[in-house]
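Homework help board

Subject: predicted structure for assignment chain

Our instructor gave us this sequence and asked us to write out the predicted structure in token form, then describe one feature. I got the tokens but I'm not sure how to describe them. Can anyone check?
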Amino acid sequence: MKKELFDFLNTDLQFIKGVGPILAGRFADVIGGQRILDFMLHRPSYIRARDIIDNIQDATPGDVITIPLLIKSHRPGARFNRGRHRPSQITCADKMGNTVIIQFFNSNFLEYWLKKLPIGQWRIISGKLEKTGRPTINHPEFIEELQNADKIPAIQAVYPAGEGLTQKQFSNIRDQIFAGLPQRLAGADERTVEFFDAIRHIHFPTSADDLNPNAIYMAKLAYCELFAQQSAIAISRRKRTDERNQRDIRPVKYSLMDKFWDALPFKLTGAQQRTLDEIFDDLARPVPMMRLVQGDVGSGKTIVALAAAIKMAETGAQTALLAPTDTLAGQHYAKLKPMCDKIGVVCEMLTGRDKGATRREKLISLRSGRTRVIVGTHALFSDDVVYKDLGLVIIDEQHRFGVSQREALRNKGKDTDLLALSATPIPRTLSMTIYGDMDVSVINEKPAGRLPITTTKLPLARIGDLIPRISAQINNGAKVFWICPLVAESEELDLTAVQSRYDDLKKYFPGAGLVHGQMDKRQRDDVMEKFAATNSDMPLLVATTVVEVGIDVPAATIIVIENAERFGLAALHQLRGRVGRGNQQSYCILIYGKNISEDGLKRLGALCETDDGFVIAEQDLIMRGTGELLGTRQSGWIRYYFVDYREHRDLFKLAARAARDADTPDQWTRDLMYIFDRGEVIGA
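My token output:
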């Protein structure tokens, strides 16, 4: 990439005329950065036509109109008591003599508006038409003299925006960027010019069709994006498997696996055994393992992880299992510790709760190599944590961690193997794209004795019917999850608040517990641990989606999910996985509101028909696309700018094949990798 173009793409938006640091910061919140490059990758979502009309009677309230108006009179704004304002109003007339009001709130700039909209002169006004007794345009987006009508675009690209940003500001930045681009592209290779030409067409659409996923320029950019990503993955994989970077294979020093098989209280499923064979083969290779294990909720990933840790312990090396929460780390430790004790392997847990002498003892044990298996949270890669020989890193719910966090833990060792676990099934086509530098194993069987969860849907009006049914189940020893989507009541949304529902249910179940994301983390963990305890007197837990993953309560056989239509299929499936973890029949009740859409009913129906997480993930992806499913909420997943999984499945395969066939990425590949990897040119 030419240095001039490189520097231009990295220019901070604050240096564009009319922007400045404050406005640039607002843009950064919306577009994910404040460079020119970030703006170019933030594409319009739709277009707005601004055809000129002569008669206000031809318009409909809510329309964006462009109309010549004669300025008749001004009424300045005024401040009333208690801080209220009367808006400034300019009375106008169209060519047919119909009255139109232009209105500006919180404005007393009479002299400014008299100059901008002088009485007795015509101006072309463009904005959204409101009907409040008289036709009104509040804060028009464009005000121009008749001879400057061409300054109002007939087709306006509308960008996703945030608070404090206007479409006019987007247009101003866009126009300046693309006005300065041609001189930076002078002398660039043909493919680079074609790429930025496609970007320009997206920012200056001539019709709504130009922004469709399969429009020529959108498809071209989607392919470039996928090709760049696949090239980066291919380079990463080549570097990892390069003979010059290969490690010495760890020799076996102890015989522990036979003890592990003897201590195992059950027989592994075929899928678990197949996955372990793949992991053991990786551990015996001179190339560090990079493997993702996908398994549906309750498929037995933890025991596979333990077997891998014991296999590593046979070489004398250590294993660190990283979990996203204290509660999940504690549950893993509770499962792994007894097995490790039987085998003679020291297993410890380290979290942020460990302080003083307790923490020092655990760190000494790790540094000496005595501790072979350590379970914990982010504390595992703190600066003061030193391992004698960290051989294997296991990341549970790995999408909850960013790449930098995973690498921080791997860098605690040398040539460290990585095993990532995910209970969020992803369709194969997409998983190979997201995790293309990793080998993928799938555990698609559940342990023997697990019964399918019976899932039903119920309208909110019949929620009272649930109380006696749930009470009867609790009397028989069951535990119940009750999930609500909000913490507090909302005036805008007719959804159940968790606090309100908790107050209602306490009348019937005095021992009920409550957890939500706004609680103190330690308090929340304490409540969840009490609910999970077998001898607990807490039969029902009212919660938000903080329990979506991790908490393991075999006695829980019922989960009620209110306003289920507000959740995606994958999220509902994860929530449903909180029950059915023992050998008792379990139930999931999906409660939906009166305003549920046809698509919402379709999603709930799909969940009632199957409990196969991979089938559900495919349906969820098709219904919602990658934008919502794999958004920035998931820090370890990729953010796509132009790719639409539903429309671009063939492009996934084409890009992967092209990247695989390119033995040596050329400058074009490096340029694309820079653009789509946010400034990090992998392998360049």
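Reply (TA_rk): Your tokens look well-formed. For the description, you could write something like this. Residues 626-637 have pLDDT under 50 and may be disordered. That's the kind of observation they're looking for.
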